[in-house]
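A reminder from the course coordinator: this example appears on the midterm review sheet, so study it carefully.

Given structure:
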């Protein structure tokens, strides 16, 4: 199978390129940035450097492609117009080109942020989306992602099979996001800041890659929206206290009130029910944190 990965130089995208190559797929990666050497050097991997807003590049990248994994996303803090324009119109152009090229499936990497803060209830895919209530990823991140989801589903009704994957907080070794910042604060003896009430079912990168492989070319996934999350619910203040304790730091945990960044909690029952998917990783974050602290000593 021939697969195009947009955003193939990114954190998840570059790892997906490797996973697809290892699984025997022919992979083409499209990104503005150069793909890591270990990805580009893999057998059956081709790299095209360019942007989704360049129609000619998109047409070139789509040639002989059967499945598109659309992970490309531009973040422009302070420039909401550019962020909305490039991501939404870029996705629209991608979908139009995929439809003309008779692509078998487009998998869109969305986010659980589209729900807005949910509280502790595990919400399913039919739960109302209120991205305007949250700011995780930036003020317009969830809004733009939801708009792109709707475009994908609209093109599904026009004959282009599409799948939306709402991922929730992807972490792995060396990629700890806000928890990496907490570790740095603890080691420096500074207050460790955590959002009161924040957390959720953060998913390990390995499980994300498994999900993409399961979805690719799978007719059961066509026209569907799936949550993708881990099996363990994390509480960020508890993780902050764990970091301080494990680092043997004198830092205090400083809880910040920010309702727009509070708990997002999602159910993966639909993905299990439809495709038999369950995450292989259980509670993994404390282990990653412990290993990170050990490596810094």
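Designed residues:
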């Amino acid at each position: 199978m021939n697969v195009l990965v947009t955003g193939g130089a990114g954190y998840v995208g570059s790892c997906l390129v490797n996973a697809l190559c290892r699984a025997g797929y022919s992979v083409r990666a499209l990104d503005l940035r150069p793909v890591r050497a270990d990805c580009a050097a893999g057998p059956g991997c081709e790299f095209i450097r360019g942007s989704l807003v360049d129609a000619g590049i998109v047409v070139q990248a789509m040639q002989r492609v059967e499945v598109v994994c659309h992970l490309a996303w531009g973040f422009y803090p302070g420039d909401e117009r550019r962020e909305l324009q490039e991501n939404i119109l870029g996705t629209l152009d991608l979908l139009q080109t995929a439809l003309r090229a008779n692509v078998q499936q487009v998998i869109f990497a969305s986010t659980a942020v589209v729900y807005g803060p949910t509280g502790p209830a595990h919400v399913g895919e039919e739960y109302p989306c209120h991205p305007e209530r949250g700011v995780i990823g930036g003020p317009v991140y969830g809004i733009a992602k939801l708009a792109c989801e709707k475009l994908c589903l609209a093109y599904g009704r026009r004959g282009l099979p599409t799948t939306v994957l709402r991922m929730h907080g992807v972490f792995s070794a060396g990629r700890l996001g806000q928890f990496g910042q907490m570790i740095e604060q603890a080691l420096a003896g500074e207050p460790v800041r955590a959002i009161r009430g924040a957390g959720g079912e953060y998913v390990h990168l390995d499980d994300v890659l498994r999900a993409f492989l399961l979805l690719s070319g799978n007719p059961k996934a066509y026209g569907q929206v799936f949550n993708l999350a881990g099996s363990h619910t994390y509480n960020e203040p508890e993780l902050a206290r764990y970091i301080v304790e494990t680092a043997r730091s004198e830092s205090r945990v400083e809880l910040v009130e920010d309702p727009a960044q509070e708990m997002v909690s999602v159910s993966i029952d639909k993905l299990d029910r439809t495709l038999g998917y369950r995450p292989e990783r259980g509670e993994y974050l404390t282990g990653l944190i412990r290993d990170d602290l050990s490596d810094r000593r």
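The radius of gyration is 19 Å. The first helix runs from residue 11 to 22.
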